[in-house]
Amino acid sequence: AQKITQTQPGMFVQEKEAVTLDCTYDTSDQSYGLFWYKQPSSGEMIFLIYQGSYDEQNATEGRYSLNFQKARKSANLVISASQLGDSAMYFCAMREGYGGSQGNLIFGKGTKLSVKP
Amino acid sequence: DAGVTQSPTHLIKTRGQQVTLRCSPKSGHDTVSWYQQALGQGPQFIFQYYEEEERQRGNFPDRFSGHQFPNYSSELNVNALLLGDSALYLCASSFPGTSDSYEQYFGPGTRLTVT
Predict the structure, then answer these.
(1) What is the per-residue pLDDT for A102?
(2) Is residue B36 within 8 angstroms of chain A, CB to CB?
(3) Interface subset of A 3-62, CB within 8 angstroms of B
(4) Residues A45-55: what's their mean pLDDT?
(5) How far, in Å, CA of B80 to CA of A94, rounded?
């Protein structure tokens, strides 16, 4: 069963506007972490933001915020004031378990974001 | 402070051959994870090394093996290469400690092409 679902293969956004990238997840664990990574064409995965399953407040990191709806098992990424440099693939990922004992990330298939000038 | 480094950047091999990919973790990190990313897909977890031992393994055949050295650097070996092994291989390092929010720092990857 697919554990991370990203339903938007590609998205377009106008420069300076906000955009939401969707992510839903499936787990039976009570403890888990949710991550968003950005992958430019160079290939390197760049960490953007993290949300723990027990965190009551939505995570924010600069222009990035994570809209965490636990009951719906969704963890959407919101990018405010889009910039041309935001054009890239974006991956949602989950780590089940807590702490260092469960290390691997489970990734979705990604969303390709294109920012138009 | 150097981040995660991987070598080589690109590699072309023939079906049936063997390949070794290398990774040096970010300074201070003791855990190395390897991922395979096929074209158009998200990365898939291969295995993770900690204290020179394989701690976790994903759904990959025994043709995929690894090693971690005392300096925490790591190698990924793939034997009897198949065309389907063509992918971007990503190495990630971390220092989990007891924190749940630790992130994995990824290297730039090695692009392997099997012909």
Answers:
(1) 52
(2) no
(3) 4, 31, 33, 35, 37, 42-47, 50, 52
(4) 91
(5) 31
pLDDT of amino acid B99: 57
For B9, list phi and psi in degrees, rounded to 5. Answer: -75, -45
Burial of B54-84, coded b for 16+ CB within 10 Å and e otherwise, reads ebeebeeeeebbbebeeebbbbbebeebeee
Q: Measured between CA atoms, how close is B13 to chain A, in angstroms?
A: 20
Section A41-52 average pLDDT: 91
Find the residue in A nearest to B41 (Cα).
A109
More confident residue, B104 or B88: B88
Q: CB of B5 within 8 Å of any CB in chain A?
A: no
Give me the pLDDT at residue B80, please: 98
Provide the CB-side half-sphere exposure for A72 (13 A, CA).
Answer: 10
* Mean predicted confidence (pLDDT) in A82-89: 97
CB-based contacts of B71, cutoff 8 Å, min separation 6: none
Record the tokens describing residue B14, joined without a space: 């023939």
Distance CA A41, CA A76 (A): 22
